[in-house]
Specification:
Layout (H helix, E strand, L loop, with lengths): L1 H4 L2 H20 L9 H6 L6 H8 L6 E6 L12 E6 L5 E7 L2 E8 L5 H16 L2
Antiparallel strand pairs: 1-2, 2-3, 3-4
Amino acid sequence: MRWLLKRWWLWAGAGFMLVAICAGYLLIPVGEGRISKATYNKIRLGWTPKQVGDLLGLMDGTQTTLVCGPPYMPSEIVGKCWLSWEDEDGNEIGVAFDSNGVINKNFTPTNLTFFEVKKRRIERRIRALWR
């Protein structure tokens, strides 16, 4: 068994496996976030803000913005509110409400490149390791 430890290919293989596991941990997402096309497709017209908030989360690390149309805006916006959720990768879901519930929804995918998304993901994972 001692002769096996002296073989270069054993150590090269072990090093490759270590690098592959570390790269997989940093690059492969653990799970899809709440701000995605699949979640967007679950939102139905007529839902209340509470139902949408339960689906997308109000305080789960996503950035939530509420915009309501004041009286000086065009008449089609008055009395309507627009809630938007954005994740760290730049994906955004916007939902318009009136007194009856959801009247419109919009999904905007990130405009970041593949490498920028991976870079941000690696930075988040490394920051999480040090907490």
